[in-house]
Design goal:
Layout (H helix, E strand, L loop, with lengths): L6 H6 E3 L5 E4 L12 H7 L2 E3 L2 H10 L4
């Protein structure tokens, strides 16, 4: 039986290569005025998923 792709994860994740998976940083919607500029700048960047979680993501996205 063919596995279905988890759509919620496929919308949140960007695959750049087989080993590198990027995800958007959380907490960007509001309450950013009280954050320091360093924190706000880092929130705007995409972060790489840790190697521990790559295996779980690949399991949920069968097209990897």
């Amino acid at each position: 039986m063919k596995l279905k792709t988890k759509k919620i994860l496929s919308k949140r994740v960007k695959i750049t290569s087989k080993k590198k998976i990027l995800i958007r940083t959380g907490g960007q919607d509001h309450f950013n005025s009280r954050e320091s500029s360093k924190v706000t700048k880092n929130k705007k960047r995409d972060k790489e998923i840790s190697p521990v979680n790559v295996k779980a993501v690949k399991k949920l996205l069968p097209y990897l």
